TrEMBL record:
This is TauD/TfdA family dioxygenase. Belongs to the TfdA dioxygenase family. It comes from Novosphingobium anseongense. Signal peptide: none annotated. Residues 6-290 form the TauD/TfdA-like domain.
Length: 310
């Protein structure tokens, strides 16, 4: 394998070229990849076999696959039972369309970590692009450890110990902070969002947590954010917005431009990611697998813990 830095000037990420299916059976290769993932947070696999089976095989190097916790999400594995755990993210007439800087975008999602609305956070995700849009369609990745290191210490002090509430309300019209200044929604999600929200209790996750290495990680998202534990007032959202704006001030992201022979894995406990969206007139299809695991710090909301909530 050819292992290189992801990009010059970044404190995270690696590129791996030349990985073959036969190498995945080698225990030493698997151990090396797992250590690289732990150290770097993001691995871009280049020039790999562009198949669903290869995606599953690469994914299981890092742990068992996990089904997506929302049953309305499209599954790519419905016609092939051997590919359980592969979901499909695609453009379509039912998808939300937004406008940023005057440009319409479909399948756009702001910076977030996966399954914030769940008590259990999956270990990682693996993406492979099946149909690549000619215009847009990039995926952004940012290191929560770098963000935390570079934040103003006074703002970090406000984030320490903060527990954030989330749910499945992913409507941008309900998002109270964190949207781009030029953001406008052109077409809402064509799904029963109220039913989705009611399907799960609210979740709670820390805004910052500490890895086994002792490294602290900024790990927050405005996406589905419902306030902080014990406070859902405008003041709470003002605090969250202040913290988020500081994180966005210091963020040093990597934006991946897709090729058919790429696969990307990212650490969902450490790395935030963003779907940059593409031209609504173009077709874009991405397959994703989810790696099972949990950092053990999330939980669902319980009435006694929030009896004093505003």
């Amino acid at each position: 394998m050819d292992i290189r830095a992801l990009d010059e000037g970044l404190s995270f990420g690696a590129r791996v070229g030349g990985l073959t299916a036969s190498q995945l059976n080698d225990a030493n290769v698997r151990a090396e990849l797992n250590q690289l993932f732990e150290d770097c947070g993001v691995i871009v696999f280049e020039d790999v076999e562009p198949s669903a089976q290869m995606q599953v095989d690469v994914s299981t190097v890092f742990g068992p696959l996990k089904d997506h916790p929302v049953n309305t999400v499209a599954r790519a594995d419905r016609e092939d039972a051997t590919l359980t755990g592969v979901i499909e993210i695609a453009t379509g007439d039912e998808k939300c369309v937004v406008e940023i800087d005057g440009k319409p975008l479909i399948t756009w999602q702001p910076w977030h970590f996966d399954h914030a609305y769940n008590d259990e956070l999956n270990r990682a995700g693996v993406l492979r692009s099946i149909k690549i849009a000619k215009e847009g369609g990039r995926t952004g990745f940012a290191d929560g450890a770098q963000i935390w290191r570079d934040m103003d210490p006074a703002i970090r002090a406000k984030a320490e110990g903060l527990e954030v509430l989330y749910n499945l309300d992913l409507r941008y019209t309900h998002q109270k902070f964190g949207l781009p200044k030029t953001f406008r929604e052109l077409r809402p999600h064509d799904i029963d969002m109220e039913a989705m929200i009611a399907s799960k209790p609210r979740s709670i996750h820390p805004a910052v947590w500490t890895r086994a290495s002792g490294e602290k990680v900024f790990h927050m998202t405005p996406y589905g954010c419902q306030g902080v534990v014990g406070d859902e007032s405008p003041a709470a959202f003002a605090l969250l917005s202040e913290i988020w704006d500081e994180a966005m001030r210091v963020i040093k992201p990597y934006y991946h431009q897709w090729h058919a022979t790429d696969m990307v894995i990212w650490d969902n406990w450490r790395v935030l990611h963003e779907a940059c969206g593409c031209n609504p007139a173009e077709e874009r299809i991405v397959h994703r697998t989810t790696i099972k695991g949990d950092y053990g710090l999330g939980r669902f909301e319980t009435t006694p813990e929030l009896s004093g909530a505003a």
